[in-house]
Each structure stands twice: as structure tokens, then as C-alpha cells.
Write a structure and sequence with these properties.
The complex is a heterodimer of chains A (110) and B (127).
Chain A (H helix, E strand, L loop, with lengths): L8 E4 L5 E6 L10 E6 L6 E4 L13 E6 L2 E6 L8 E9 L4 E4 L3 E5 L1
Parallel strand pairs in A: 1-9
Antiparallel strand pairs in A: 2-6, 3-4, 3-7, 5-6, 7-8, 7-9
Chain B lengths: L2 E5 L3 E2 L5 E8 L8 E7 L5 E8 L4 E3 L7 E6 L4 E6 L8 E12 L5 E9 L3 E5 L2
Parallel strand pairs in B: 2-11
Antiparallel strand pairs in B: 1-3, 3-8, 4-5, 4-9, 5-6, 7-8, 9-10, 9-11
Classes of the chains: A mainly beta (110), B mainly beta (127).
């Protein structure tokens, strides 16, 4: 059972805007940075958003992150077929003194 | 270009010890990052195993802490994972990653995002 809660699936059509939520608590999201990772089948995760809303070099600005209280969201605008992947949120947890991940959301582009 | 590459046996017997090494190229392991291990059981999500700073400071997943040791080999620019007394539940793809360090306004020092990942190595626990 993950410390961070994500919906198991999400979907959208090309061009749409999709959001994926990540819910936590004051010991993780509430007090610390949230990061998002994108993973395609058979490959390693890739950092997509770090420190709530920062994009690493090379990540399109179609991807954006936000945080409010003990929840965070990943938004993908102008959805493309190549965005079909699994998405994970993560944060440091003060109570565990460790990194916690969400269970992942499988995004399907219809 | 920073690259990480995991290596180690793909098959470990139950009750024995899993040992993996991550060789870092293109960046000095002594230059101020955490170096961590994350695993993913087949068809499931990601689980953080632990992280080690270049000074030797470690953070371990509480659920694995009694069986895990991380170490850094600065001479060979690599770091290692040792997981003792393995069971079938430890069968997973194991990733090593470079992780940033946060020093926040509360004075806390903790692990930041994993910005560079190895390709991952599958370890199966079976007799």
C-alpha cells in the first residue's frame, strides 16, 4: 500500500488536457517537494517534474506540475499518443525518513 | 554525459545475499549528490530501497533497513547495494539513480528527485 495515492488509470484523446492527482499527508507532500516520473514499458523511469513544478531540460512545456496542501497534480496539455505511459509521483516522508512513491497511473491515449 | 550502469547476478537463492553495483560515468561520485537504489516488482510500482550521500550518510527504507547496506567506492566511482536473507518477494528490477539533496528552511537534509537512472537489472530470487 503506497503512502501516496494516485488513480490507477487515466485517459484522454489527442489534443486534450489530462491531469493526474497524487494525494499524501503533512509528513510528505505537505512539507516536502513532489516529483513526477514517466515510465514506458521495459524502460527505466524518467524524471518529468521535480520540486513540485520544475521541468528538467528537454521536457516539453506541455507537462506541468502543481501542489496545494497535501496534494499534487501533473497536467499534460495537448495530449499526444507518445504520452501513453505510466506516471509516478514521489516525495520525501519526514515520518519514515525516506522516499515514498505513489502507486502509479497508467495513462491511455484513446 | 552522466550514465549509471547496474551489474550483478540475475539469480539469487532464497536466504542468500543479493549484491549489486552501480558504476557511474561522466560524473564524480564525490561531488555532492545522493546515490540511491529503487526496485520495481514485475507489473507493479516503484519502491525506494535506500540512498547514500558521498560522505557516507545513509537513509534506508524502514521496511528493508534490517537487511540492507549501501556503500560507496570512491576509488572506482561506484556504489553498491547488499540485501541479505532474500525471499521471492525481493524478485524485482533494481535501478540505481543519482539523487539530489535538499537542505530546507527547517534545517533538514533529505533526498531530492532522482534525475539520472540506470537501465535497471532484473534479479530473480529462486532455488
Amino acid at each position: 500500500q503506497s503512502m501516496l495515492t494516485q488513480p490507477p488509470s487515466a485517459s484522454g484523446t489527442p489534443g486534450q488536457r489530462v491531469t493526474i492527482s497524487c494525494s499524501g499527508s503533512s509528513s510528505n507532500i505537505g512539507n516536502n517537494y513532489v516529483h513526477w516520473y514517466q515510465q514506458f514499458p521495459g524502460t527505466a523511469p524518467k524524471l518529468l517534474i521535480y520540486r513540485n513544478n520544475q521541468r528538467p531540460s528537454g521536457v516539453p512545456d506541455r507537462f506541468s506540475g502543481s501542489k496545494s496542501g497535501t496534494s499534487a497534480s501533473l497536467a499534460i496539455s495537448g495530449l499526444r499518443s507518445e504520452d501513453e505511459a505510466d506516471y509516478y509521483c514521489a516525495a520525501w516522508d519526514d515520518s519514515l525518513s525516506g522516499v515514498v512513491f505513489g502507486g502509479g497511473t497508467k495513462l491511455t491515449v484513446l | 554525459q552522466v550514465q549509471l550502469q547496474e551489474s550483478g547476478p540475475g539469480l539469487v537463492k532464497p536466504s542468500e545475499t543479493l549484491s549489486l553495483t552501480c558504476v557511474v560515468s561522466g560524473y564524480s561520485i564525490t561531488s555532492g549528490y545522493y546515490w540511491g537504489w529503487i526496485r520495481q516488482t514485475p507489473g507493479k510500482g516503484l519502491e525506494w530501497i535506500g540512498s547514500i550521500y558521498n560522505t557516507g550518510t545513509t537513509h534506508y527504507n524502514p521496511s528493508l533497513k534490517s537487511r540492507v547496506t549501501l556503500s560507496v567506492d570512491t576509488a572506482n566511482n561506484q556504489f553498491s547495494l547488499t540485501l541479505r536473507s532474500v525471499t521471492a518477494a525481493d524478485t524485482a528490477v533494481h535501478y540505481c539513480a543519482r539523487q539530489g539533496r535538499v537542505l530546507d528552511s527547517r534545517g533538514y537534509n533529505y533526498v531530492d528527485a532522482s534525475d539520472i537512472w540506470g537501465q535497471g537489472t532484473m534479479v530473480t530470487v529462486s532455488s
